[in-house]
Amino acid sequence: MTATSSESTGIPAPRTTEDAAPRTAWFQAVPFFLVHAAPLAALVVTVTWTDWVLCGVLYAVRMFAITGGYHRYFSHRSYKTGRVPQFLMAVVGTTAVQKGPLWWAGHHRIHHRFTDVDGDVHSPRDGFWWSHVGWILSTKYKATDVDSIKDFAAFPELRLVDRFHLVGPLALAAACFLIGGWGGLVIGFCLSTVLLWHATFFVNSLAHVLGRRRYATPDTSRNSLFIALVTGGEGWHNNHHYLPASVRQGLAWWEFDPTWYTLRALAALGIVRDLRLPPARLLEQARVRDGAFDIGMFRAYWERAARLAGDRIADLSARPVAVSVEVADALADTATAAPADAADAVALERSALTGLIARALESADQLAVSTRRSRKGATPVVRDADPADPVVE
After folding, report:
1. Which of 58, 150, 253, 354 is the most buried (most CB within 10 A)?
2. pLDDT per position as a tens digit, 221-233
């Protein structure tokens, strides 16, 4: 399907009702809402400090299984590991109650393939509810998309884990009850699960709405310190969409990324290997001058200016828009020209405007060329692994 853009913003228009349906399968969502209500039982059952410690530990361990396992390994293959650690990562990941590794990673790959255009499974353009949790509760994405995850679907044990993904969380819930009784179940397991759910879902919903942009990508991804803090480093989402196969998402020294720190420690122990990091030169490419500046907005501005400004180049040059070196040169050329008379002045302004628009759009195209190539699977940055590459040894 082709992307559609809003003429006024340059952001893809919402899907039609037909494309967005079906929405929520309410009956099948009952267990989801019951887990949300379970922590309220803490008002009538005994809760100890052990239950709260259990809640924190389960949140941290299962968050890493999602970020370091489901996301950076199964979805993007940003490092390698052995078959046994791969299996254990998949099993622990299921305890986060976000379905199996093949389901999770398969749909995430689709998200990267169609980010913020038709085909994206959870774009914020369809509303906060849909991008946050509605798509998960919908029957539309209930099945595992095996075609998008053929590399890992080749392992029979992973297919088994994916098929019986509820065994892990049920076993963990039982263990929490044995450890702490009802307090261990409702606080240790249920509360940590609810917090884990929504922290993870924030990456799909808020990380495409709130925050700043470092790189010009053809989507709405943004970097958010808050989301990074609650997800173990996944909040540096604009970095990730620019370099999807990078094992490290907090690219600056101050960008908190505990998932990366943990993987680096596991690499030192020999449990994982071949951590994929981007070349230094790529970290300076496709940079935008203002974190709030967007390449789509850049193009939309100049296209609107070409239609509406006419021959008023003075008005256009005074607009507060971040421009490239090429655009600045065009403005300088206009300022130094000396028309012979009024007619020549009008002709000069029209000619300068045409050249200015052309050069601005050309600059935008050059800035976005790497991201457009990524749509066709020819990403010139740190690429996602080829399914033909060996995964484990």
Report:
1. 58
2. 999 999 999 999 9
Do 152 and 236 share a domain, yes or no? yes
pLDDT digit string (tens) for 216-260?
888 889 999 999 999 999 999 999 999 999 999 999 999 999 999
Predicted local distance difference test score (pLDDT) of residue 295: 47
Is residue 363, in this structure, part of any structural domain at all?
A: yes
- In a domain? residue 29: yes
355 and 317 in contact (C-beta within 8 Å)?
no
Asked if 158 and 255 sit in the same domain, the reply is yes
* Cα 48 to Cα 259: distance, rounded to the nearest angstrom: 29
Share of the chain above pLDDT 70, in %: 67
Residue 380 lies in a domain: no
Cα 277–chain centre separation: 18
Answer whether residue 206 shows pLDDT above 60: yes
- Structurally, how many domains does the chain consist of? 2
Give yes or no: residues 354 and 329 share one domain: yes
Tell me the pLDDT of the chain averaged across its residues: 78
Same domain, 331 and 216: no
Q: Which of the pair, 136 or 186, is modelled with greater confidence?
A: 186
Residue given tokens 């490092």 in the structure block: 79
Task: With respect to residue 388, please indicate whether it lies within any of the assigned structural domains.
Answer: no
Pair 230, 200 in one domain? yes
The two three-digit tokens of residue 350, written as one number: 């029209």
In this structure, the answer to whether residues 52 and 112 fall within a common structural domain is yes
